[in-house]
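FORM 7B - TANDEM STRUCTURE REPORT

SECTION 1: FIRST PROTEIN
SEQUENCE AND C-ALPHA CELLS:
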Amino acid sequence: MYKEKFSLIDSITNIKNIITGEERIMEFTISAYTDMLDLLKEHNYYICDYTNYEDPKKSVILRHDIDFNLQSGVEIAKIEYSKNIKSTYFVLLSTNFYNIFSKESNDMLKLIIGMGHKIGLHFDEKKYKIENSNDLEYYVSFESEILGKAIGKEIRTVSMHRPSKWILENDIRFENVINSYSKEFLHQFKYLSDSRMHWREDTIEIIKSEQYDKLHILTHPFWYSNKSERIETKLFDFIDASRLNTFKNLKDNFRDLEEYIDEDTLNGVDFNAR
C-alpha cells in the first residue's frame, strides 16, 4: 500500500513540475548524474582523486559514500567507467547493511576496483569511544588495515560517516591516510553534497558558472534510480528488497527452506498474522 501511495505522489509531482516549469536543482536519477558528468567534461574540469588534483587548472574530486547498498555503488561505477571516469568509493566496516567479507559484497568491491576506481574507508566515529585526535587516528588506521586486507588494496583515504561538529571544525590530518574532511578539501575546494537526498546548492549552475577552479562533489549512489522518486519511495523500496535479500541469504544457510516458505509466496505475507 505504501509503495503504491508514494508512486502516485511521484507521478503527480512530476506532472506538476512539467506544467509549472518547476524543477529540482538536480534530480536524483541515473540520467541526471550522467548529464552532470558530461557537463563537468564540457566545462573542462579534470576529474581527479585526493592525490592528483593540484596540477590541473580546473579539477573536481568525485566522492561516493556507500551507506546502505553496495549494488548502487556498482551501478554508478559502471556509468563512470563507460565515460573513462575514475572516482573514489567510501565503504563502511561497522554497518549492518552489508558485509565486506561476504563473497557477494567482496566481489562487488573488486568489480568497482577492476573498473579503475579507488576504495576508501567510510568511518563511523560513533562506533568507538573517541576522546581526541590520537584515538581517532588509531581507529581509522585499525579499520583501514582491515578493509585493505579484505580487498587486497592499501587504503589511502577516509571519509567520515555523519561527521561530528568536532570533525568539521578541526583540520584533522592522519599520517598515512588522507582525511577528506580536512580543511584542504572542505575550504580550498567548493564542496557540494547530496546528503539526505538534498542538494544544498545548485550544483549544475555552479559547474556552468566556472566560478570555482576546484570542486569536491559528494554523492550517495543509493539515492539515484532510473526515474524521479520521492525519498519515501526509495526508502520503502529498499525495505521491501531487504526482505527478499534476507530470504535468499537464509536459503543459502538453511537446507530445504522452501519446504516451509518459498519465494513466490514471500511478498505480501503478513508474518504477524501467522
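SECTION 2: SECOND PROTEIN
SEQUENCE AND C-ALPHA CELLS:
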Amino acid sequence: MMYNFPRGGAELFGGAFWIMMVLRAVWCIAVILFFVWLIRFLIRGSRHQHMHDFKGLEGHFGNQAIDIVKARYAKGEITKEQYDQYLNDLK
C-alpha cells in the first residue's frame, strides 16, 4: 500500500524533516562522544591518582635508593661507615 503524503515524503513537515534528521545525528554523535570522554576521564583519573600517591612513590624511590647504596657497598665504592650513614639517612 502506498501512502499519499502531502507535498511529497521529504516535505512532510514543511522541510523540517531534514533539519530533524541532522539534529538527531548531531545528538547521537554528541552522546557517543560524551560516553567516550567519560570513560577516558574515569580511566585517566584512576591512573592519575596512582601516579600522585606520594606515599607509594616515596616508598618506591626509597627502596631504589637503598638498593643503590647496597650495590655501591658491595662493589667497594663506599665504606661500612658511609653505608650505615646512608641507610640511616634514607630511613
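SECTION 3: OBSERVATIONS ON SECOND PROTEIN
The two ends are 87 Å apart (CA to CA).
The CA atoms of residues 10 and 17 lie 7 Å apart.

SECTION 4: SIGNATURE
Preparer initials: ____
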